Amino acid sequence: MNLVQLDRRRFLRGAGVALGLPLLEGLRPSIRRLAAAETVSAPRRMAVVFFPNGAIMPNWKPQSDGPQWQLSQTLAPLAPFKQKLNVIEGLAHDNGRAGKDGAGDHARSSATFLTATRPVKTAGNIKVGISADQVVAQHLTGATKLPSIELGLSDSQNAGSCDSGYSCAYSSNISWRSESQPMSKETIPQQAFERLFGDGTSEGKAERDFFRRSVLDLVARDAESLHRQLGRRDRQKLDEYFTNVRELEQRIAASADADQAARPDIQLPQGRPERFAEHTRLMMDLMVLAFQTDTTRVATFMLDNEGSNRVYAEVDVHEGHHELSHHRNEQQNIEKIKRIDLHLAEQFAYLLNRLDSVSEGERSLLDNSLVLYGSGLSDGNRHLHHDLPIVLAGSGGGQIATDRLIRLSGETPMANLYLSMFDLLGVPVDEFGDATGRLTSLA
């Protein structure tokens, strides 16, 4: 059987394909020997889902606290997962504020979100700081096929000015490998799939494109051999996993075909879905598969670039998001932003549901992860960078208590949360951004 070992996980291989496997009980004995008697457990993952333009905070924030606290109207879609998340109030990004730099709050919002560092105001030589996800990814380099995956719905723009003299790179990226190198996003589902499950050669991709073959066809021989060696529960888990992969491939292919059909005068070998929710959920499903197969343990997903003026016709909002976020306290505009906020929360709920549906021993994939959902602005109308809208789902493998509304006193640097997340993910870091210490209330 042509199985390749990579850090406690196995990969099925075929022509140009390296398809990771979920954690299977039947593989543990051999893996344990290879790992020199190391205790095998599900790895911990970090995911970040960013949304632009802030939120209508009175609808975002829970109105009660204590043991009987309840989710707000905006976060109501998260109710099935309330026992597996914490809503955190009082976090701030001081480096997102104007200071001496003047206008450009949207660019600073996304640039500081994971870096907690003030970006240099320039359209040329960009400079901010390494982002929290990349601190974790660099620590885990070699443990997985990919150190990280960066996903989004709108392409990254790394040249030109997009917000009051700030480079477009700041508005369209939250992940930064270094202070001057953003991690550009994958926005087309098929290209993200190739990055996750291709082996870096063109052989398998060319064959699949020509014959429209599934990656499962290319690894069928390995899969059949492995199937015979597994117990009933593992065979069932493997069959469910293969079914999910096949269905995801079919959805990606259908979205690419629809994209080409909608643009008959443009030659597009690959496409992206036109509908926001469809596109979002395809990318989220790819993230879940990446975690399930241990292809990577770090992922970021921008629901849109900061300052986006996307129209959400699916919820009957036909004006641009950014334009509406400056609602000037006009109730009709506030109501439309509420609908957008709720729609975005529904997409995050979809991700939590998919993560929670994957069993890993006694816990779920969600339980074994830390999944951050939030924005670099609270009130988009006034461009406020304090009391940010933040949800942290998952417990990092049972390390923290959940089902809590955590209200911090005063303003607490967002970087304090990242230091605590580093600890939970086993990443030894003592300083990050403008952190003043750990977020002790998270323990």
Key traits:
35% helix, alpha/beta, 2 domains, 3-stranded antiparallel beta sheet, 443 residues, Alkaline Phosphatase, subunit A
Count of DSSP strands = 16
Query: What's the order of the H and E elements?
Result: EEEHEHEHHEEEHEEHHHHHHEHHEEEEEH
Shape: globular
| N- to C-terminal distance | 45 Å
> What is Rg?
22 Å
Domain module count: 2
Strand content: 15-25%
> Order of strands across the biggest sheet?
6-11-4-14-15-5-16
Percentage of residues assigned to helices: 25-40%
Instruction: Report the CATH superfamily of the largest domain.
Output: Alkaline Phosphatase, subunit A
CATH topology of the largest domain: Alkaline Phosphatase, subunit A
Briefly characterize the structure.
The chain is of the alpha/beta class and 443 residues long. Helix content is 35%, strand content 16%.
